[in-house]
Amino acid sequence: MKRILIVVALVLVAGIAGIVRSHSRGGSYVASQNASGEVRDEVRKTYDLAPGALVDIASINGALKIETSESRTAAEIYIERTGANSDALSRRKINIDADANTLKIYGSKGDVGFFARLFGSNPSEKVTLKLPRQISLKTKGINGAVTVGEIDGAVEIHGINGRVQVASASGVEIKGINGNIQVGLKKMGQDDVSFSGVNGNIELQLSDGLNANLETHGMNGRVVSELAEVKVEQEGRHGEYSARIGSGGSAISAKGINGNIRLTKPTVAVPVTAAATSIN
User: Fold this and answer.
1) 43 exposed, middle or buried (CB, 10 Å; 0-12, 13-18, 19+)?
2) What confidence score (pLDDT) does residue 152 get?
């Protein structure tokens, strides 16, 4: 019995020591605290990116918004984190690695003690970026909505728990999405457009002059065209549709979709294209 009590006491001491260490090693700057005790911190950084640079964002517990501009070369980063208390902010951290050709932003576990790791709550995170259009983008593991402006390069979006909106890109790969999707296609580049493992509806906004072939497989839903010039054909098997857009060409494929696909015209305004101003 004494041995058991000694072991329990050692575990408690180790846990308390871990919590003390988590406070003494520094961490994120807490910008404000409201009346209910909720705390908040923020990060603002700017980096120069070369044309064609890769922006890679992963493991964010919250929304991601990317605004783009044709005239800018700098990447502006604004990250806001909110937690129930300072311990909650310490449970996770946001890392930024950058050079001229690559910008990586990703969340990871913080350096916290035994009890904070077991019983604490994670902070919510909101990442807002202003980027030049001449980039390619990868995102993975976002627990929130993803909104992306017009991008000249390819876009890969994987593992999102929330709505996805992409104003336009030369090639798009979207898979593992729990939410509705809206993608604008102005022109098809060398990269194809593909959707897979989507639990939600998909809206494709097709610009005039776009040439592509749409094919779907294993859909639990329908493909509907609101464009008079685009006719949708249902194939022999359930969930298989095809459509020729313009004169045909590059592939738009969809499989494993639990929802409908709608073909529409682009909206007049694109709210996610940024003016050449700094993040406030």
Assistant:
1) middle
2) 92
